[in-house]
Design brief:
Layout lengths: L8 H10 L17 H13 L2 E5 L21 E4 L6 H7 L6 E6 L2 H7 L3 H4 L4 E7 L15 E5 L2 H18 L3 E6 L12 H9 L8 H5 L26 H21 L6 E3 L9 E6 L12 E6 L1 E3 L3 H7 L6 E6 L12 H9 L8 E7 L7 H12 L5 E3 L22 H10 L4 E3 L6 H4 L6 H28 L4 H12 L4 H18 L4 H8 L8 E7 L6 H4 L1 H7 L4 E6 L6 H4 L8 H7 L4 E6 L4 H13 L4 E6 L9 H13 L6 E3 L9 E3 L6 H8 L1 H10 L1 H7 L5 H20 L5 E7 L4 H15 L3 E6 L5 H5 L4 E6 L12 H12 L9 E8 L15 H12 L3 E2 L4 E4 L7 H15 L16 H6 L8 H6 L8 H7 L4 E5 L4 H7 L5 E6 L6 E2 L1 H14 L4 E3 L5 E6 L1 H13 L16 E2 L6 H17 L6 H7 L27 E4 L13 E8 L2 E9 L18 E7 H18 L10 H8 L1 H12 ...
Helix pairs in contact: 2-6, 6-7, 6-9, 10-11, 15-16, 15-18, 16-17, 26-27, 31-32, 38-39, 38-45, 40-42, 42-44, 43-44, 45-46, 48-49
Bound molecules: iron/sulfur cluster (SF4).
């Protein structure tokens, strides 16, 4: 065998020209014992790629290819890049291949070169085979940006993983990073035959793992991990991150192909040393595992070969239940931040484990594995058990090889994170211009930015002088051709950090030896230290931000010099408000961006390490000033790293510290790159500002359109008009008396009153401004010279509405301190409330409490009341208007404008009717709003319109206060509801829903009371992809909400297969028939443009452009089951079955649930039976009822607009005759029917066609994984194999339906495995139902879905004590009176009024035939339990045979029966001795 002692560019050139192995005068060959792994990577890279980029160090040099390649017929294009060059650019220039590969040594130079391109590279079919020398610190920098990262610690593994990586890159069209170790290795390697590589890459994806893989437990180590699952290849991943799951599935499929080729197992985590059977300690190794051979008692070493994606479930499965300790060994000797790359991932996986006792997790750094002996491992285990930290295993490379940091007297511990990164990135060329190290020689001024700037200027001038000297020597110096060429090359490459240094190192001896008599030579030698290009940095703290001018930062920014400024901000997020009470800290980033030609980045090392690197590299490259704002929050120098991590996360998540990069040099590219999700308001404002938009338009037109064009022409026009109007107002009101109207409003009522007041003030010639209370401070208010009118409603138990709370707190605090900051302020308050909301005498003080408190406290603060407090009461004849009409004239009088005649009519308030008609058939400006990335919300009008598209805008109410305190907008998110008539879906559709919840929502989804899926937590930019995914599954969301016909319900009836098929078809038919015809849905969400452009106009033949006055609901029921609560719907069809055949329906009309607390014009209503129609006539009947409602419904008052009110207003007979008039025929008399339940029939049933159905219980319809109840996973697993359908029930449960007998055993097995077959719940729980309410529903006043299970825990104990464990009692709860869970038909119901407080209702009919009635107007949990305990006992003792609870409470005299909706309020509050005292 020939040997080669040098591999140089000639070698690669030879490959390019002549094919593998043909080297000019030499042959590439195998050099025994050195760098075998190189060749394993090289062999596969060569055989698998179309383009192969190679960048290897010159010493020690071996061929990366084995001899055998000379016979290969596959000839990739091999492109050599010198070591230290930029292989990333070469790869991007040659990206056309189906597989690209790069073979290189991963040192800091290479990684620095790759970082700027890594985002682009990651989406190419590329394998980066990067070699390491027992330290992964450099290469792991790339990990966060690359989808797949594999690690090989042996030669054979390098060979196999190289194949696997190539296959992955080819099939997934994504980048794969393959890390392997170079060094001495004598392992024998079984190589793949050359001819098999290309077919392997091209073969189809196998559907299942090869047998060897199944037997080999590829995913687990011993098959039984911490979560107790087995280790088969089709294990559930259980990662909440669906991207990780998808990537892992792709990896798994590629392993199957690889194993089929190599017949060797490929395992993401595999045992390394001989492992104890029940180890107490696991060494989880990320790097080359220790080489000791003796088995260690109780210690197992596991080697991880899949670094990304690494689902937590895989980690857990690898850890046996016996383990009490996991030591995460990471081979990262130079990692600059405290948390190493994998420790947190392992720790959080272990935290999420479903085990009772969890092992402790310890971080540890792994040194050189070859030196490690078993005794070292034992010592490590001992240290871990005695709490020693930090832990190390093995020896480490000579520290002298690590770039030395400039020695500084004192740099705070945490801040060294950044200086270390700088030192590593700019190894050998870093100049910290104000290093404290200079203090000794230059005095204390050396650390100031002015001093540093002076140094930079001097250095740059010297370098310019060097350039001039080189040019002079080239122009007229007497130098040899070689020296001339050398100097020319330096001149051309003088800004290239690698080349300039290498060439400089050649120039100096060449000049010294040249013996040339030229002054330029002496000058060059004198300035030799400037031959390498330097990276110049000034490092400062956020103290500079308090006075930008004086701090010298301004000079650095304005200098135009090529200098980089790193500003480290250490103010912890949680202490930001205290940090600068007196002085205002300025935003250095915005200040710098305003200068235009400055590179600006905002980074946080504890949030995104990769982004820090990108920013520092870009700043270094930028020819001009760069400012990098680096976040490193710590209160004390000894603050633990975990605290820094937490503070960073909060700041970045809240948008307080956005991560971004602004690179004005990127002409024609993306100038501004936001690297985190949230931005703070002033940055948004900056991006919005016109002068910068014009910069953006110049540099990247499409970005500008994202920022401004997205606001929509109408919005821009509105802004222009507003600006014009503001100007005119200013001119017109210079002499007018000022009125400031401040309001606090949750539901919009007080806001409307305030704005109307402002409009009327303007009409009287006043200079008026209107704002929320929270938008002013007491200091602002103290400066007000006119009158301030406050308008507030009241929330919960007397609290202020959300947008007045901060102000109210400030007022309260000042009053408590007995201060008088508002002396001289003139004010008046108008409060709005409901005197009956809290009916008990002891609660009476809650009435209008916010307004009353404010009025009293303003006076305490020294303000002067100009008009007495006005109070508006919902209970007055005209509602709050009654009180308002008295208060307003007094205010005009106080302002002296009561005599002003107002001739102009007041503008009509904008209602939903205006929004609908102006929307151009439901378009509005939704499309523009979706593009507007400056807010997470849509415009208020669009939020009304999106309901018609099945979308509700909401915000996370759990964090509303916190976000407001942070000064950021609410955490806007959207609920999406699917239209799925009859609640039937296929398994593939279920799987898609499951995936959408993970990818776009909050990871769970809800089965609703309208038999459909609902996703929560979808943020704006995910809306469109989510809707598109739903449509891809052949479902849609059109008309799932809004003033149209909603999802049509039909009974689930598992046992009657034929009948179900018929009524399901009928329900679908009605749904399709009543669907809006607008094309807006397809245009906005599915990007389907109108073929004929604007010339084609939408028509809505059924709805017209106003659509319906309110929502409209249709249901189909099959007696005796009333599982759809037919009487709660606007239209109902009760199936009439005669002799086993569906002959038609009894038609019902006028059911509805929604109510407004305290508004007796609103009430729930059960539907009336109108008559009978045939199946064929059904659609027309539904349509005509809807049309009568369309034309007669109350469009002036949405609270009175449902069909139930229309029928009561028109009279049932008149209504019916209107319907029959439109039909042109009369309904037949209703036929007999009878219902006996409205709950689901849980458990197994077999249909007439022999197929099986299982109705499972899902508490309140929430599909999620909970400890011990992995229902989401379980249902997903069933959907994977199920061949029938799923039926959702209107009680929020699910029927796994149409199971063929052949599949029964498998389904039963999965049901048992995931405990989904458990129906041992009490009768009460099985009959319960709750709406969503907090945290997502914007209307919720109290908890519902999260609280009802807790309440049932307590009530079911009472039932059990009384022997009623299995008795069904229908109990329902909603968070507000809108009644989504149909509470008014329950035997016991709770309707939220305020947090923890509910309306309690009793006496509903067991099968949904009778409304219940208010029993108590406000109860809390202790009161509920105190009421129910004797009542349930009474029921248990005295009920009649078969008597239902709802009937009993009426017979026993607790509550009167409700005979019709209009009488719902009559006799509320209980009967006789049970009557509420205050009612
Ligand atoms: S009943 Fe009220 S709180 Fe519950 S989901 Fe419906 S609107 Fe929201």
């Amino acid at each position: 065998m020939d040997s080669v002692d040098l591999v140089d560019l000639d070698f690669f050139g030879a490959i390019v020209e002549g094919g593998a192995g043909v080297v000019r005068g030499r042959r590439a060959s195998v050099c025994e014992g050195v760098g075998v792994d190189w060749r394993m990577g090289g062999l596969v890279a060569y055989l698998a790629s179309d383009v192969l980029v190679i960048s290897l160090p010159p010493f020690p040099a071996v061929s990366p290819f084995p001899d055998s390649l000379s016979a290969s017929r596959h000839r990739p294009t091999v492109l050599p890049v010198p070591h230290g060059g930029d292989p990333g650019s070469t790869l991007l220039r040659n990206r056309a291949g189906s597989v690209l590969s790069c073979l290189a040594l991963a040192d800091s130079q290479l990684v620095t070169r790759l970082v700027p391109h890594i985002t682009e590279l990651s989406s190419l079919p590329l394998v980066l085979h990067l070699a390491v020398r027992d330290d992964l610190s450099d290469v792991l920098i790339l990990r966060p940006s690359i989808p797949f990262v594999l690690h090989s610690s042996t030669a054979q593994q390098a060979h196999d993983n190289a194949l696997l990586a190539s296959r992955l890159a080819r099939t997934e069209k994504k980048a794969v990073l393959h890390i392997f170790h170079v060094g001495e290795s004598t392992d024998s390697v079984q190589e793949v035959e050359e001819g098999k590589v290309q077919p392997f890459l091209l073969q189809e994806v196998p559907r299942s793992p090869p047998r060897s893989l199944i037997n080999g437990h590829p995913n687990g180590v011993n098959g039984h991990g911490l979560n107790g699952a087995n280790g088969h290849s089709d294990d559930v991943l259980e990662s909440s991150d669906s991207i990780t799951n998808e990537l892992y599935k792709a990896y798994e499929a590629a392993t199957w192909s690889t194993v089929a080729l190599t017949r060797r197992p490929v395992r993401p985590i595999a045992p390394h040393s001989s492992s104890a059977t029940s180890p107490h300690t696991i060494l989880l190794t990320f790097g080359r595992p220790p080489a000791f051979s003796d088995p260690l008692e109780g210690v197992s070493v596991l080697a991880v070969s899949l670094f990304s994606p690494l689902p937590p479930a895989k980690i857990l499965r690898a850890i046996p239940p016996s383990a009490t300790r996991v030591i995460v060994l990471e081979q990262v000797q130079k990692w600059p931040v405290k948390f190493t790359p994998f420790f947190l991932e392992v720790a959080s996986a272990v935290q999420s484990a479903d085990a009772e006792t969890k092992p402790t997790v310890h971080p540890s750094v792994l040194g050189l594995p070859d030196t490690i002996k078993s005794v070292d491992v034992l010592k490590l285990v001992q240290q871990a058990s005695s709490g020693v930290s930090p832990l190390h295993l093995g020896s480490f490379e000579d520290d002298s090889q690590t770039p030395a940091l400039p020695e500084v007297p004192h740099v705070p511990k945490h801040e060294q994170s950044y200086t270390k990164i700088l030192a590593r990135l700019f190894d050998g060329r870093l100049e910290i211009e104000n290093s404290p190290f200079l203090v000794a020689a230059q005095g204390s001024a050396a650390t100031t930015p002015e001093f540093a700037l002076g140094r930079v200027r001097g250095e740059l001038e010297e370098r310019a002088a060097l350039v001039r000297a080189v040019q002079a020597l080239l122009d007229h110096g007497d130098v040899t051709a070689e020296l001339h060429a050398l100097l020319t090359r330096w001149l051309l490459a003088r800004d290239d950090p690698v080349k300039s240094r290498a060439l400089g190192a050649e120039i100096v001896p060449a000049l010294e030896d040249a013996n040339v008599e030229d002054p330029a030579v002496a000058r060059i030698l004198m300035l030799r230290h400037h031959l390498p290009a330097r990276s110049r940095w000034i490092i400062g703290s956020d103290a500079w931000a308090y006075d930008l001018g004086a701090s010298g930062l301004h000079h650095a920014i304005a200098s135009g010099l090529d200098v980089n400024v790193l500003v480290v901000d250490s103010t912890p997020y949680s202490a930001r408000a205290r940090a600068d009470p007196a002085r205002r800290k300025q935003d250095v980033g915005l200040y710098a961006m305003n200068h235009g030609d400055v590179y600006v980045a905002s980074v946080a090392v504890y949030s995104s390490y990769a982004q820090v690197l990108q920013a520092l590299v870009e700043a270094d490259r930028f020819k001009g000033p760069s400012v990098v704002l680096a976040y490193l929050p710590y209160a004390r120098e000894d603050a633990p790293a975990l605290e820094v991590l937490k503070e960073t996360k909060m700041a970045v998540d809240a948008g307080y510290w956005p991560l971004y990069r602004w690179d004005p040099s990127k002409e024609g590219e993306e100038v501004f790159k936001l690297d985190s999700d949230a931005v703070k308001n002033d940055l948004q404002a900056f991006l919005d500002r016109q002068n910068h938009i014009s910069q953006l338009v110049r540099s990247r037109p499409e970005l500008a359109s994202e920022l401004v064009g997205s606001l929509g022409e109408s919005v821009k026009e509105a802004r222009r008009r507003k600006a014009q109007k503001a100007y005119e107002d200013l001119l017109g009101s210079i002499d007018a008396p000022p009125l400031l109207v401040l309001y606090a409003s949750d539901g919009g009522k007080a806001e409307k009153v305030a704005k109307r007041l402002a409009g009327r003030g303007k009409a009287r010639g006043l200079s008026v401004d209107v704002k929320t209370m929270d938008s002013v401070t007491l200091e602002d208010l103290a400066k007000e010279e006119g009158v301030v009118a406050f308008v507030t409603s009241v929330a919960g138990q007397g609290e202020f509405p959300q947008n007045g709370r901060t102000f109210a707190k400030a007022v309260h605090a000042a009053a408590t301190r007995a201060e008088k900051p508002l002396r001289g302020l003139k004010f008046s308050v108008f409060g709005m409330g409901d005197s009956h909301y809290w009916p008990r005498p002891e609660d009476a003080h809650y009435y209008n409490k916010a307004g009353k408190d404010l009025d009293a406290r303003l006076e305490q603060l020294g303000a002067e009341r100009v008009v007495q407090l006005g109070l508006g009461d919902d209970q007055d004849a005209d509602g709050p208007e009654t009180g308002y009409k008295v208060w307003e004239p007094l205010l005009w009088k106080a302002l002296g404008v009561d005599a002003v005649e107002v001739s102009e009519a007041e503008p009509e308030p904008i209602t939903n009717e205006h929004i609908k008609v102006a929307s151009n058939y439901l378009r509005g400006t939704i499309a523009e709003g979706l593009e507007d990335n400056t807010t997470g919300a849509l415009s208020p009008a669009d939020t009304q319109l999106t309901k018609f598209h099945g979308i509700y805008q909401q915000d996370d109410r759990d964090i509303r206060d916190e976000r407001q305190a942070q000064g950021v907008e609410p955490a806007y998110q959207f609920m999406i509801r699917v239209r799925m008539p009859g609640g039937v879906c296929r398994p593939d559709q279920w799987l898609r829903m499951d995936q959408i919840a993970d990818e776009h929502g909050n990871g769970t989804f809800k089965i609703t009371t309208r038999q459909t899926f609902q996703f929560h937590g979808v943020i704006k930019r995910h809306l469109k992809p989510a809707i598109q995914d739903i449509n891809r599954s052949l479902l849609d969301t059109l008309a799932a909400c809004g003033d149209v016909n909603r999802n049509v319900l039909c009974s689930a009836i598992p046992s009657l297969s034929k009948l179900h098929a018929e009524i399901y078809e009928f329900a679908k038919g009605v749904s399709e028939h009543l669907l809006p015809r607008t094309t807006a849905y397809h245009e906005i969400w599915l990007d389907k443009k109108l073929v004929a452009g604007d010339s084609l106009k939408d028509v809505e033949p059924l709805y017209g452009e106003f659509y319906l006055p309110r929502k409209f609901k249709v249901a189909v029921a099959v007696p005796p089951t009333n599982d759809v609560d037919i009487f709660a719907n606007d239209v109902g069809f009760i199936a009439i079955v005669e002799k086993g055949h569906l002959v038609g329906f009894n038609v019902t009309a006028g059911g509805g649930m929604g109510v407004t607390h305290g508004n007796k014009k609103t009430y729930p209503r059960t539907a009336d039976v109108l008559g009978f129609c045939t199946v064929e006539q059904g659609k027309a009947v539904a349509e005509k009822i809807m049309l009568v409602q369309r034309d007669n419904g109350n469009r002036a008052d949405r609270k009175n607009a449902r069909l139930k009110y229309t029928i009561d207003r028109m009279g049932l007979e008149t209504f019916k005759s209107e319907v029959e008039k439109l039909l042109g025929w009369k309904l037949e008399p209703a036929r007999p029917y009878s219902f006996d339940r409205n709950i689901d029939d849980f458990g197994w049933a077999t249909g007439e066609d022999g197929k099986h159905h299982f109705t499972m219980f899902i508490e309140n319809g929430r599909i999620q994984d909970e400890p011990g109840r992995d229902f989401k996973t379980g249902l997903r697993e069933i959907a994977k194999i199920h061949k029938g359908t799923f039926r959702l029930t209107a009680n929020q449960h699910v029927v796994i339906s149409d199971i063929p007998s052949s599949e029964l055993a498998k389904i039963k097995e999965l049901l048992a495995q995931y405990k989904m077959d458990n129906l041992s719940q009490t009768g009460l729980r099985l009959s319960s139902s709750a709406c969503v309410a907090f945290p997502t529903c914007g209307l919720a006043m109290a908890e519902s879905e999260r609280y009802l299970p807790v309440l049932i825990d307590k009530v079911e104990k009472i039932c059990e004590e009384n022997g009623l464990r299995n008795d069904s009692i229908v109990m329902r709860m909603t968070g507000c009176p809108n009644g989504c869970a149909r509470p008014y038909l329950a035997e016991i119901a709770f309707v939220g009024k305020a947090p923890g407080t509910y309306l309690m209702l009793l006496g509903g009919g067991y099968y949904g035939q009778r409304l219940n009635k208010i029993y108590r107007e406000s109860v809390t949990e202790p009161e509920i339990l105190a009421i129910l305990k004797p009542m349930i006992k009474h029921y248990a003792l005295e009920r009649l045979e078969g008597e239902r609870f709802g009937d009993f409470v009426i017979r026993a005299g607790y509550i009167a029966p409700t005979t019709s909706g209009k009488e719902w309020y009559d006799r509320m509050g209980g009967e006789g001795e049970h009557r509420e005292v205050s009612a």
